[in-house]
Amino acid sequence: QKEVEQDPGPLSVPEGAIVSLNCTYSNSAFQYFMWYRQYSRKGPELLMYTYSSGNKEDGRFTAQVDKSSKYISLFIRDSQPSDSATYLCAIKAAGNKLTFGGGTRVLVKP
Amino acid sequence: EPEVTQTPSHQVTQMGQEVILRCVPISNHLYFYWYRQILGQKVEFLVSFYNNEISEKSEIFDDQFSVERPDGSNFTLKIRSTKLEDSAMYFCASSSWGLDNEQFFGPGTRLTVL
Question: Tell me: the pLDDT tens digits for A21-30?
Answer without folding.
Answer: 999 999 888 8
